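EI: anyone free to look at a 159-residue chain?
SC: sure, send it
EI:
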Amino acid sequence: MELPAVNLKVILLGHWLLTTWGCIVFSGSYAWANFTILALGVWAVAQRDSIDAISMFLGGLLATIFLDIVHISIFYPRVSLTDTGRFGVGMAILSLLLKPLSCCFVYHMYRERGGELLVHTGFLGSSQDRSAYQTIDSAEAPADPFAVPEGRSQDARGY
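SC: here you go
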């Protein structure tokens, strides 16, 4: 199934809006973490061909999924919530729920920009071509293992 084309600017605008509303209740480290990642997203928009920018934004989104879970679970106000507080918490949770979908779209953009597959299954798949390397069980042994390289005399030591 092919993912629909979603503009990176739409993802940034949506998460910026939800993060701003989430900061009504969760300020401090929640705001720093999310707005820093959104700044990486602005960098990814500014440099359309940069694999580094989009990969940093993708990694940051993945990290903020974990960080948002921690922030919401630790700093959730348990005593009394006003309607504004409930709205802010709801927007922070909605932002958290939309981040995995955003990660899928951003990963698709990463692949379009020329990024490689992040998940390597080398031990399950076929082995890499190592024809340029000499095997350990090679029958070719050096003629004289203590031979002096050309252009160096016996008294020139490397230590």
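EI: Residues 25 and 77 are 8 Å apart (CA to CA).
SC: 👍
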